[in-house]
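ok so I'm stuck.
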Amino acid sequence: MSPREGRVAAEAVEAVFREERGLLLASLVRRFGDLDLAEEVTSEAIEAALRHWPAEGVPDRPGAWLLTTARRRAVDRLRRDQAYAARLAVLQADAERAEAVAPAADTAAIGELPDDRLQLFFTCAHPALAAEDRTALTLRCLAGLTTPEVARAFLVPTATMAQRIVRAKKKIREARIPFRVPGPDELPERLPGVLQVVYSVFTEGYAASSGPRLQRLDLAEEAIRLARILHRLLPAERESAGLLALLLLVHARRDARTGPEGEPVLLADQDRGRWDRPMIEEGRALVVRALTGGPAGPYGVQAAIAALHDEAADVAATDWPQIVALYDVLLTLTPSPVVALNRAVAVAMRDGPGAGLALLDALAGEPRLRAYPPYVVARGDLLGRLGRDVEAAEAYREALELAGTEPERAALRRKLGE
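replied:
not stuck anymore, here's the structure
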């Protein structure tokens, strides 16, 4: 086999792994009830594919090949480990019953088992886990990132992230957290946590907390992929549609959000011709679904706000009264200082900078906003628009100390120079 053929085969394996890993892992977790075992045999199946596929060719159903191989590796490992003997006996009995109903189960397409992945979503985002552990576990298990990649995403040492992931798995095991989809009575309480994990991943991708770049497009795109999976698995849940709509409508502006040197470009200054129109249209259709059939949820309302921005030809043509009204609704659903900050900025666009600044000053005592750069930058902008340059410069200096990424710091230094 030539080096080029070897590269092609390796790329095919990587593509399959990236696309199917979460579903493969979820199927194995359901079958064997052990996340560590499932991860190990998934990796072994990938290694086997790298050995066999270059010589034998990529199978017609590569996901099913990987699932079959991983299941056999898991059974072999359980047979060698006496501690799992009792569990293996139960698993074999279950497998025999399954085979009696569906003899081709081992070669069934992975795509026919969507609930397995949904179970893993709810397990990774279980409220018994710490918030940071939920996000780490979701990225590791469902987005398919390696532990070093997850560590880089949140700018912590690999060893620290490995400890978080181990801690989360241990909690699942010791607390006997079930691998299952919550029942209809539990779903309204549990679903927001799952959606929040995916939104947190996107937020870090949209505006990195620190580092050399403003955006982490890889993380933002992984979050969108996860949101698509959730929406496919829960098509009747309007907030899953709302989350996907929000991510698409915001991510559609990605190419216009930074300048040639990676510096941030404000919404008012963005070249709207560079926005991704097909993505916007997809998001707008999902907004309609998210807002139809009952009271709106927080993600649906945020998506509607994003849609109004994306539909406008420019800032002046934006329907600011409607955006303020939507923020009023959002404040009743999820009252928070950050929502109040965003509403104040919208009021400034509707009623003038003085009205917006008065609302921002009323939020000055909020602990969450004291070290929140967008709050300080918004004050500086409104002070500058009011001609209060000395106070504006003071706000920008404060924001410069708080800024997490180098592009943000460079933009603030330019503001101070102006």
